[in-house]
Amino acid sequence: MNSVYKNIVLFLYIILIFSISSIPGHGFIGKIHQFGIDKIFHFFEYLILGYLLVLAVNKKSNIFKIFYILVLSIAYLDEYFVQHISGRTVDHLDFLFNLIGLYTGIFISILATNYYDKKNKN
């Protein structure tokens, strides 16, 4: 896939994250938070983001470092943004699961791309 399309997908996914975060905490969102299931959502939400980050940006370039810092900032800004939404509160464990998911997604994506690159060399 063309790198421009990968960057567009990454950008659209970031918009999706903030769109989901802007849902008020009443009803369904409040219930999943009450049972702690939201941690699983945070983990997978950011796992996908980490995976897309590695696919979108060459991990050997300086731009990867810039994108990496931006994505870390998104994890923080997402939790900051949530406190301004009706019925939502900041939870430091959510931020922790954002980071764990992000690093897991980056790790899986790097493993997958390295495996794919080695397989195509042979």
Give an account of the 3D structure.
By secondary structure, the chain is mainly alpha-helical. The protein has one domain (3-14, 29-121). It contains five helices and no strands. The protein has helices at residues 3-21, 28-34, 38-56, 62-82, 92-121. The two termini are 21 Å apart. The model has no long low-confidence stretch (mean pLDDT 83).
How many domains? The number is 1
What is the mean predicted local confidence, pLDDT?
83
Number of helices: 5
Return Rg in Å. Answer: 16 Å
Question: What are the key terms here?
Answer:
elongated; mainly alpha; 122 residues
Write the SSE topology.
Layout: H1 3-21, H2 28-34, H3 38-56, H4 62-82, H5 92-121
Give a short summary of the structure.
With about 120 residues, this protein is mainly α.
